[in-house]
Amino acid sequence: MSFSATKFAQPVPLHASTPRSNDTPSLFKTCSFLGSTQKLRFNPLPTKSHQSASYRRSAVVAVSDVVKEKKRQTSTNLLITKEEGLELYEDMILGRSFEDMCAQMYYRGKMFGFVHLYNGQEAVSTGFIKLLKKEDSVVSTYRDHVHALSKGVPARAVMSELFGKTTGCCRGQGGSMHMFSKEHNLLGGFAFIGEGIPVATGAAFSSKYRREVLKEPALIT
């Protein structure tokens, strides 16, 4: 017995002009995209007096419309400048390009050992580490390449470390999972889950002690 797919997958317009005989008029219609919505009830979005009728004629609001609305409301209260945004974008692009090249070299047999990539997570590294000051410390995990880049370690030094060269940030002895840089306060990547927590705790205590007890000027803001 054979069936035609067209008998089962018949698209229903999202905005039907007239309701079907067995359905009551509602904001959303049952369609192949939403699946069966007989048990789902959607409340219409609240309207505002200054919005035009055409803006809310559909319950499915385009993402671009939402962005435009937020932009109008927050255009005078920007969190970052254009230059800062470009710097963050450049850091994310560097992280993605760096990891893509690491993947190519690893699959070609140019890198040895374990290489844990960070593709797709660049915004996490950039958004968090770029908020830190130079004297702040970072303790990473086994996916530490991009963390090192965001903290300011030169890309050449990180890549050299992956190739086991003496010009690497750990003189070629750390490898992929153990990036370290005293100059940039990168306290290492750690291969085991949770292994860096005691190190991070000690670094936090040291910073707090030097700032509050020793009153070091460089740590007082």
Automatic annotation (TrEMBL):
InterPro entries in the cross-refs: DH_E1, PDH_E1_Alpha_Subunit, THDP-binding
Top-level taxon in the UniProt lineage: Eukaryota
Every Dehydrogenase E1 component domain range: 91-211
UniProt key word Oxidoreductase: yes
Protein name: Dehydrogenase E1 component domain-containing protein
Cofactor(s) listed: thiamine diphosphate
Molecular function per GO: pyruvate dehydrogenase (acetyl-transferring) activity
Single GO biological process annotation from the record: pyruvate decarboxylation to acetyl-CoA
Keywords tagged on the record: Oxidoreductase, Thiamine pyrophosphate
Pfam family, one: E1_dh
